[in-house]
Amino acid sequence: MIHFVTFNIRCDYEQDGPNNFCFRRERILKKLEEERPDIICFQEVLPHVAAWLKQELADYYVLGCGRSEEFQDEQMAVAYRPDKFDLISWETFWLSDSGRPGSRFEGQSICPRTAAEALLYDREEKEIYRVFNTHLDHVSGDARKRGLGQILDRIECPRTFPEAGVILAGDFNAEPDGPELAELWGRGRLTDASEGLGGTFHDYGQLSQPEKIDYICLAEPLHFKEAKRWEDCVDGVYLSDHYPVSVKIYRE
Any idea where the Endonuclease/exonuclease/phosphatase domain is (predicted)? Predict the structure, then answer.
């Protein structure tokens, strides 16, 4: 059994008033200490927040690199428990035609977009898992569709360990019925473990109907139970402007 979380931690540009990262970070640590997930896929991790995660999450290894040409800016960070997993391989790849660091699709936002792939061996269960973490473009539906297609191609054509269980997580910036996600459901392999939980982006409680844009998708033979949104809020301060999503994943 794997306790798995996807968590858009929100870029820390000190623009969120009472929900600035400096006011959220101790609550984030407390929640992670209480829940003790095995794997966490973080999005919107700026370099100083990545350094903070590596310092404070003593029970985890935190992997990731920035999305810019100089490997700065936001990253797709994956944290995993080394007492449970061995890392077989790791790769950050750019969602673009060229795949070069800092590259983008024509017509997308100014933000390069990346995905991270971690190949993890569960020593206790003696199983291998391929974990993909991404944050698709917030402007261009075409870029979201093409970036997702690039990830799905990798999922369907693994270079090694084709028997490994597949987990795809992150902020897709699209609702489940969005046209850019049609290929995700149409290829038939992946199911949404977070389906039915309701919206995930809530803008610190400002949205009366949160948007469902965060996902944990699994391919058979992986299954799940106990899917939850982390809705913690104390005195108007949330964990993030997205609800982190948590599931328990098992293999049949």
Answer: 5-242
SS3 180: helix
pLDDT in tens, 97-144: 999 999 999 999 999 999 999 999 999 999 999 999 999 999 999 999
Tell me how far apart the alpha carbons of residues 175 and 78 are, in angstroms, rounded to a whole number.
23
Signed CA dihedral, 56, 60, 61, 64: sign only: negative
**Assigned token pair, 232:** 């913690």
Report how far residue 35's alpha carbon sits from residue 244's, in angstroms, rounded to the nearest whole number: 12
- Centroid of chain to Cα 184: 16
Q: Answer yes or no: are the C-beta atoms of 165 and 219 closer than 8 Å.
A: yes
Rounded distance, CA 23 to CA 127, Å?
Answer: 39
Q: Which tokens belong to 192?
A: 């949404």
pLDDT digit string, tens, across residues 137-183:
999 999 999 999 999 999 999 989 999 999 999 999 999 999 999 99
- How far apart CA 99 and CA 105 sit, in angstroms, is 10
CATH number of the domain located at residue range(s) 2-251 in this protein: 3.60.10.10
Give the pair of three-digit tokens for residue 182.
Answer: 């049609």
Distance in angstroms (rounded) separating the CA atoms of residues 163 and 219: 11
Evaluate whether 7 touches 31 at the Cβ level (below 8 Å): no
Angle at 16 between CA 244 and CA 102, to 5 degrees: 70
β-strands 214-219, 190-192 pairing: antiparallel
